[in-house]
Amino acid sequence: NWVLLQTTTISSTTGNVDFNNVFDSTYKNYFAVGSQIRGDSDSKILARFGTGSTPTYDSTSNYKRVVSYIGSNNSDSIKYSTSDTAVLVTPNTIDTSSGDASFVMHIPEPQNTDRQLLVHFSGVEFDTNPAVTYFDGAGYCDNIAAGTAITSIRFTPNAGSGFDTGTFKLYGVK
Fold it and tell me: Whole-model pTM?
C-alpha cells in the first residue's frame, strides 16, 4: 500500500519543493509524484538529495544521470552526464505558456547505508519544441558516499525563480 506522507500544491511561485527529514526506516521504498508542474519561466525539473537532520543539499557537480526520451515531433535521444549539479528529471525545457510535466520517481531505501542511493523516474512533458515527450531515467550523487543516509529530497527548476503550478506528493511503501 502507498501511504501519502506529504503534499505540496503550488499556486504561486515557489523556489524549491523540499521533502525534508522524511526518509527513515518506516518504509523501504518512497515515491515522489509530480503532477502538471510548470515553472515561472521555461525550465527543466531537477532533483537534489539532502543529508542530515537540517538537510544539506548537495549542489556540486557530482550527480550522474541518464535520461532516454521520445517525442511526438519524431525526436528521440539519450542524455547523460557524469558532472551535473542535480539529477535532471525532465530532459527538455517545459513551455511556460502551454506546457507542463508529470513524473513518478522511485526512491529505494534512502536510509540504506550499504550503498549509494540510485533513483529511477519516468514521466511525460509538453515542451518548447513543441512536442509531447515521454522520458525514463536514473541518477545518483557520487559525492554522497555509501555509509551516508539520505534524509531529504529537493525539486527545483533549472531556470527562473521557481515553480508556478502543480502538485508534488511523497508516498511511502513498505
Answer: 0.95
